[in-house]
Give the backbone structure.
Amino acid sequence: MSTPSISIGIITLQQRTAGLAKLLAHLMPIVENHPGDIEIVIANNSGQTAHDDIRKNIDSTGISGVCPVNLVDSPQNNIATGRNILLDHSQHDLLAFLDDDEYPETQWLEELLHIKNTCDATVVAGPVPAVFHPSAPAWVHTVDLHNTRGRRNAQTIEHTGTGNVLIDKARIGNLRFDESFGKSGGSDTDFFLRVRENNGLIYWASNAIAYEDIPEARSSASYLIHRFIKQGENYRRISSERGSAGSPVVFTMKAVAVVMISMPIAAVMVLTRRPQAGDWMKRAFSNYGKLHSPRKQLYSS
């Protein structure tokens, strides 16, 4: 089997230079050791005025001397637009997504490709363990932020985010992220639902690990609770628009029941510092979010 050519896609912002530099430093040995063609495509979500600063940051890491690095300016700070830029400007059929606040282990790409080849997958997803700021409340450190627990290597999964995925562009065709979700969040959920509806299979690669640094501002209880509520709101919106929510009354009653059961359990778990506390908080507030229409945006300019 020939060695595949790979594109690695990253969305970045001007104020996240330290995170991007850390990610590129971790990518350096991965790029150097990949025997096939490889490129990095970076979507600048801070606009054209930030282009030169981001370019200097990229060049300071030395990675431009190892592989081509294409920096593309986005017309707006919209995360779905940035993802579509990566799909449209990457040169190779296999595109691996990473976020600029992540850093992969050395075997990351190798493990994604192994599952891709073994399972003949359309999409391969890997775990993104969250590294919360030390100041975060104890229960926050127990949150399974990206739903990685309970998944087995090489199993098919229904949902994933874009923080750590390998996509076969030849198989998804013209599918793109819905930019109406670009500020609220939820574009990845909607996108991968459509991949599956088009007979695409998503597989899990347990050993393709990329860690996510969660800064202090996003490690707070208030931010995470807002995030969980927003996820519930987006789930309701997507389900309603796609006609998969069923009866609105039944949908609402189920969400109310889960909130009523989960909220007191979550409170007890937090007070007793149990390792499941974060997951119960997530369950409680995401279902609470299903009772709301979308409100405050998750992503801001």
The chain has a mean pLDDT of 92. Residues 102 and 282 are 22 Å apart (CA to CA). Strands lie at 6-12, 38-44, 69-73, 94-99, 102-104, 123-125, 130-132, 164-168, 202-204, 210-214. The radius of gyration is 19 Å.
